[in-house]
Amino acid sequence: MAVPLRTDGAVAGAEAPLELRGISKQFGHVVALDRADFVLRAGTVHALLGENGAGKTSLMRIAYGMVQPDSGSLRIDGRERRLRSPREALRHRIAMVHQHFSLLPRLTAVENFALGGAGRFDRGQETERLMRYAEQLGLFIDPDTRPADMSAAEQQQLEIAKALGRECRVLILDEPAAVLSPAHADALLQQIRALADAGASVALITHKIQDARAVADDVTVLRKGRTVVTGIMSSMDDQTLFAAMLGESSSEGARSDRRIAAVQTAPILAAIRALTSEDPRTHERLRDVSLEIHRGEIVGIAGLEGSGHRLLLRVLAGRHGVLSDAISLPQDIGFIPEDREREAVVADFDLRHNVALKDAADRRGWIPWRQWTERTRALMTEYDVRATSPRASMRTLSGGNQQKLVLARELSANPSLIVAENPTRGLDLRAAGAIRERLRTARSNGAGVVFYSTDLDELASEADRIYVAYAGRVRLCALSREAIGRAMVGAQ
Amino acid sequence: MSTSITARGRALRLVYVYVAAAAAVIALAAVLLSFSGFSVANAADAAWRGAFGSADAVLSSTLVRSIPFMLLGTAVALAFRVGVFNIGGDGQFLIGAALATSVALAPWSMPGWVHLILALGAGAAGGALWGLIPALLRRRWGVFEVLSTLMMNFVAVHVISYLVRGPLQEPTRIYPQSSTFAEGVRLPSVLDGTRLHVGIYLAIVICVLGWIWLFSRESGLRARLTGANPIAAESAGRIDTARTSFRVFIVSAALCGLAGSVEVLGVTFALYENLSPGYGFVGVAVALLAALHPLGVLASAVVLAAIDAGAGAMQRDAGIPSVTAWAVQALLVLAVLAGRALVNRARAQDVPRTPVTA
Fold first, then answer.
1. Is A398 on the interface with B (CB under 8 A)?
2. What is the spatial distance between Cα A301 and Cα A257, in angstroms, rounded to a whole number?
3. Chain-chain contact of B229 with A224 (C-beta, under 8 angstroms)
4. Cα–Cα distance between B256 and B280 in angstroms, integer?
5. Which of A33, A56, A346 to mutate to test the interface with B (most CBs of B within 10 A)?
6. I want to staple B73 with a disulfide (CB 3.0 to 4.6 A). Which of A54, A273, B202, B297 is the partner?
7. Does the beta-carbon distance from B233 to A58 stay under 8 Å?
8. For residue range A14-56, what is the model confidence (pLDDT) as tens digits?
9. What is the mean pLDDT of chain B?
10. For residue A317, what is the enclosing H or E element?
11. Among all residues of chain B, which has the CA nearest to that of A319?
């Protein structure tokens, strides 16, 4: 399909604070970038759109000095530069906030904030600076908490404050909204706008056209490492961008066939009755929560950070230590946690180990490695996990492929209850569609599915019923984006 | 297959790292010695003769020294794999030696081999007991074992001081040491006329068992998963990580105690102060040099033992202080760790985190 390639005219400014031209990069046999262009104008927000693996992150890592390009030029304020390390990028006041945070979990917020700065560490002064940036962002950051005890949203906020604290002019954000609830995401987008209005230049990696539309002045679409479209946002319609991202086949996944009745008569699979509990680590709590999961339904869960949804999902997944009469769960539960690298995989080990990880506690004796290799190979084929072999390190897989392996591991035993926490987060449209399809199939096979998502449209279209968590309480909610949104902020 | 090529490439790069590290350390040691006014040629000659120069050097010096290194190295490797930083090998070694001594000196009438096995068992039990305290502190109150095991080392040194001047002192009450063990409760030598004792078989068996357990047993897998990502091990694997690491901690401590008993039953035949010139820390070096691999421990134990033996000979024949051995061992470990980090970093650069094929 022909998409107009525009790298001229309005976008190209002579004094661009960041200009990448003809950037190519190969990792082993994989071509990550193929003569990609990206020009960030001063004082603008520039959305970098593309599917997973399109090369967005690689391109920005080159701009941040983390990765060296094989060829192509990088200009800062019109002058050709080589950035050999993030340190050099920071010297040119280019900062990047990664999708996986680079905070030190055991240092406090203010220590993380000050880390990498020069001179003596003055705690009082740094705390003051942190609070100033937090205020500017409209955030509350407790300077003495540690990232280990923070939610993903709070860590994200600290990362951004930290980048601002470096007094950067160019801020690169890698999928910043992926881990945030809708309210936080909207606030973040507004903040990004305000930063640009104040003179900063922001490169925003995203795969959501809506987010780009909401905030960006310019847009660049990458596909398979190439710049396929670049120009002023307002001159592009969604259809153009969508087609550019997906390439030739651009049909959205089939809509779910919603079933309304029948579920209530199905047997109850899992139930919580009048449970009050608190997570000692995050202090997230549940108050007098009752709910039921039936066979053959997808139960949606929505909630803002700190509403109790995280704890609720862990209780339902049997991952919360408490044994209580208030909780009845089936034996076989598949759990797909949101923070994959932390809770679901061992990144340093190979795929076989990561498949064998599931329920490792229950096995005894010799490890049948040959069987695990065969099983891993079978799962890779069935779930389309792209990796060189079952012995490939988990770290070498893209996020989407890691997620597919986790899904394969958790679903292949046909568990009667599946708890999926934002399973499509950060995935491209096709991969996300495939994962939703898997959950629907599990439902038709009689499994109960608990499905949490920060994407309310996704939630409303997939779930048969939706519970919304707010301040530790959990209520049923109508199946519409508006109703969920209101319930999430506690409105009646 | 592309996988076998990359695996071979990785192995080859590691070989380069070890060779380069060894060369760098030898060069550095030569520079240091010549700056200190020693003859490098004499030193090298003495070191070679002391470590490998004769059958006696290999059997009675290098290999004898490698026995405790193998046991302590395996103990540390297993503990580090599960995420327990047991640096209390010294204390566990000493208490193991003390318990083995008291059993070996007990006036029991029984076949020597039964007595020996009891003494070895007592050594393992002593080490386990000494490890139990920091292991419990860690499990109940989250006390960081690096501190607690280190502190327990100092306590153990004083316990030994007391024992060899009190309950375990030899009958004449002159020397701060125990009586010498009877012939029957000594580990027999492998070859007549050498000091190499059957403890070498025990140490090799322990290394091999450690390797098999770690990579082929389900409980070994649980230990490695716990060490690599305890949160995922608990969430996805349902593993009781606290219990897993506690158990491996105790096993590690028991192996250190066993090393202590093998040392008194096979080499010194008595307990005395300064029995361990910091063996617990050499164990850490052995394990790190071996990349925490029990079979690698076999090799790295021999290498570090050879450096020890060579340094002893350098002191005798060339007048060079034997503490040089410590410096060389430390430099070797640092060089290998740095080399491996560089290789890993280069590999991380090669590997796309978000390949285009996703």
1. yes
2. 19
3. no
4. 8
5. A346
6. B297
7. no
8. 478 999 999 999 887 678 899 999 999 999 999 998 876 788 8
9. 89
10. none
11. B235
CA distance B133 to B65: 29
| A 14-73: CB under 8 A from B | 27-28, 30-32, 51-55, 57-58, 67
| Mean pLDDT along residues A452-462 | 87
B224 touches A at CB < 8 Å? yes
> How close, in Å, is residue B146 to chain A by CA atoms?
17
Q: What is the ipTM of this complex?
A: 0.86
Per the CB < 8 Å rule, is B218 touching A431? Answer: no
Nearest CA in chain B to A50: B356
Give the largest Cα separation in chain A, rounded.
Answer: 69
Residue B107 near chain A (CB below 8 Å): no
Q: What angle, rounded to 10 degrees, do the helices at A369-382 and A399-411 form?
A: 110
Is the CB of A398 less than 8 angstroms away from the CB of B218?
no
- Coil, strand or helix at A79: strand
B221 CB within 8 Å of a chain A CB: yes
Mean pLDDT, chain A, as a whole number?
84
How many angstroms away from the CA of B220 is the closest CA of chain A? 9
In this structure, the number of other CB atoms found within 10 A of the CB of residue B48 comes to 15
Measured between CB atoms, does B4 come within 8 Å of chain A?
Answer: no
Q: Retrieve residue B329's tokens.
A: 């061992």
**CB contact (8 A) between residue B235 and residue A356:** no
Q: Which amino acid is at A50?
A: G
Encoded tokens for B36: 């200190």
Q: Do residue A32 and residue B352 have CB atoms under 8 angstroms apart?
A: yes
- Letter for the amino acid at A55? G
Alpha-carbon gap, residue A337 to A116, rounded angstroms: 32
CB burial readout A98-129, b (16+ within 10 A) else e: bbebebeeeebbbbbbbeeeeeeeeeeebbeb
Residue carrying structure tokens 């060894």? B22
For residue B356, give the nearest of A55, A349, A388 by CB distance.
A55
Q: Residue A313: helix, strand or coil by DSSP?
A: helix
* Contact yes or no for A197/A43 (Cβ under 8 A): yes
Q: How far apart are CA A387 and CA A402, in angstroms?
A: 9
Residue type, B221: L
Give B221→chain A minimum CA distance, Å.
Answer: 8
Answer yes or no: do A27 and B217 touch at CB < 8 A: no
The reported pLDDT for the residue numbered A11 is 42
